[in-house]
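Entry 12.
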Amino acid sequence: MVGERTHNTCEPMARPAPVHPGAELCRAVNLTSHRRSFRRRPVKARKVRRLEWLALPDWDRSSCAPNPLRLAWFCWHAADMEGFDPATSFGPDVSQRYDDDLRGDEAETVDFLAGLVGGGSALEFAIGTGRVALPLSQRGVGVDGIELSPDMVARLREKPGGDKLDVTMGDMSSASGPRENYSLVYLVYNTIYNLLTQDDPVRCFENAARHLGPDGVFVVEAGVPSALLRGDQFINVEHLSNGEVVLDVNRYDAVTQVLDENHVSLTNDGVRLGPISCRLIWPSEMDLMAKIAGMRLLHRWAGWNAEPFTATSARQVSVYAR
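Predicted 3D structure (tokens):
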């Protein structure tokens, strides 16, 4: 998750005219990404290839001026967003502001994980900046990590105690951790969705199983797809204030189970895009992946406080064992 950002300029189809804030979206550069957990954390970086305007009668495409009675939106129309590489998504810019947008349940996460590790050690897949690993290590747990981004690890090292954690650089679906026989391997905040093929998360489960001791467990936390999707195209308003509007623009492919989304920040200073792709996994599919890896489901809850998992749950916290 490191490397230079790609820069593309997308121009409106019509000639330039008085600038409306929506027109700035077509001229956006310096595309960045997050790693997100549907609040949050992207994982990789992408670039926009083409943006087309909807041919709606209440949108003046020549001036980008909206009809005051009804604001017509734009959409991604035949606008392929090129695949992004996780090795280039969490570069210096993202790593430095990654902890500015915490989910707010970090303490509950650490309490839950600490209750499972006992007197053993823990391995975090995609340890990032250590937002979970560091407070867990402060509980006296020996925590190691696997991480793809050198910049995220560099940010981890800047924090108190960050230089004491042992981190292997590599892909969490294949890299080996610093030791063996962990009591706990965990992967949280939707990060398993960053693996974009069906085979990759299977390999991730297999890699987790290889690292577990006889009584060890693998914890996966992720959103439930049914709670995240509203058809194949939809927009969420993530933030709305006098100085900024943040939109989450989504397109879902039910065949590949890949959700392409772009977090669009509109301010008076310009536009910033945060693109990401995630392959969503249903709980039953995750259980099958665990079975392929030689593990079984022990528990599934709807949150870190062991809330019952039901058909309407928005997320899952699943615990697997060999």
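Annotation: The CA atoms of residues 37 and 189 lie 5 Å apart. Residues 1-80 have pLDDT under 50 and may be disordered.
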